[in-house]
Design brief:
By secondary structure, this protein is of the alpha/beta class. The protein has a single domain, classed as Inosine-uridine Nucleoside N-ribohydrolase, Chain A. It is 39% helix and 18% strand. It has 13 helices and twelve strands. Strand 1, helix 1 and strand 2 form a beta-alpha-beta unit. Helix 1 runs parallel beside helix 2, helix 1 runs parallel beside helix 12 and helix 5 crosses helix 8. The two termini are 18 Å apart. Bound molecules: alpha-D-ribofuranose and calcium ion. The site of calcium ion has 9 residues, from helix 1.
Length: 314
């Protein structure tokens, strides 16, 4: 069993990754910390509580409110045209009775790492603000966790915010640079692979037909939320009735990295130069200091297998 802590900005793709983790027989979710991005940190927490209820996962999971601005004090713009007004495609899920855990996100991350003594995997699906703030409090954090999986960045594909940068990295490039240099055993799952992996309307029809009876509500939620997300994907890529798979792919890799191929490299993130903000500077480009550990960057993935695995838990 893998013990994971999910740091997320609970939008549509985060929500599918979360539901996958909650239903997976090999993942145990130790807690959630939220960050602004697809929606406010507060709305992300509200969405997360409702998703836990929807999943009927059968165990209690703390949800902790995290950063609502990046390290430079910036908030927004919130991409409501991608994830809707409430972050989950305007789908109204039943309210949960569960309350938020009253603890700061960095403290919660550090205490979970201490509690699990080297057995915690962090899965970061949004901006890296909470992780950077946790590092500020405890610079030994990278040596206390097993590893960290980050959805973010791009090295070979165009960015989705500017030509060089992906949204999670761009949104708090300073935090990303701190985290990339911190010494985590880290896998980065970026646009190079997430934009090569598609979930289609056909996949969802198959799921509707063959899902477990107990997961019918989950599948109906995914179908409704994806309707919104497909629309954005069509408008931005021209691809009809399908979407790229960002956060769920990172979750699948967290569960079992063997679906990907990786390149080991030192990397840092540009945060000062406005034009190149959020660009990952690998040691294949120019990088001024190399005094930090290498990270694994996912360069290829078995997309068919990934989609089959994603659907299989439901
Ligand atoms: O660029 C894609 C990433 O940005 C995903 O994590 C999505 O949920 C948003 O946070
Ligand atoms: Ca996300």
């Amino acid at each position: 069993m893998k013990h994971i802590l999910i740091d997320c900005d609970t939008g549509i793709d985060d929500s599918i990754a979360i539901l996958y983790a909650l239903k997976s027989k090999t993942l145990h979710v130790e807690g959630f910390t939220t960050v602004y991005g697809n929606t406010s940190s507060h709305q992300a927490a509200e969405n997360t509580l409702r998703l836990i209820k929807l999943s009927k996962c059968g165990y209690e999971i703390p949800v902790v409110l995290g950063a609502n601005q990046n390290l430079d004090g910036e908030y927004g713009p919130i991409p409501i045209y991608i994830h809707g007004d409430n972050g989950i495609g305007n789908v109204e899920l039943p309210k949960s009775e569960q309350q938020l855990r009253k603890e700061s996100a960095p403290d919660f991350i550090i205490s979970k790492a201490n509690e699990l003594q080297g057995d915690l995997t962090i899965v970061a699906l949004g901006r890296l603000t909470n992780i950077a703030l946790a590092l500020e409090k405890d610079p030994r954090l990278p040596y206390k966790v097993k590893n960290m999986i980050v959805m973010g960045g791009t090295i070979g594909k165009p960015g989705n915010v500017n030509p060089y940068a992906e949204a999670n990295i761009y949104g708090d490039a300073r935090a990303a640079d701190i985290v990339f240099r911190a010494g985590f055993h880290m896998i980065v799952v970026g646009l190079d692979v997430t934009t090569e992996t598609y979930l289609s309307g056909h996949d969802i029809s198959v799921l509707e037909k063959y899902c477990d009876v107990e997961n019918r509500d989950i599948v109906q939620y995914i179908k409704s939320a994806l309707k919104f997300y497909f629309k954005f994907n069509y408008e931005s890529t021209g691809c009809q009735d399908r979407c790229v798979v960002h956060d769920p792919l990172a979750m699948l890799i967290a569960e079992n990295p063997s679906i990907g191929e990786y390149r080991m490299m030192r990397a840092a993130v540009e945060y000062e130069n406005k034009e190149f903000r959020g660009m990952i500077k690998t040691d294949e480009r120019f990088i001024s200091d190399y005094n930090h550990d290498e990270i694994l960057y996912c360069i290829r993935v078995d997309s068919d297998l990934a989609i089959r695995r994603l659907l299989s838990v439901f």
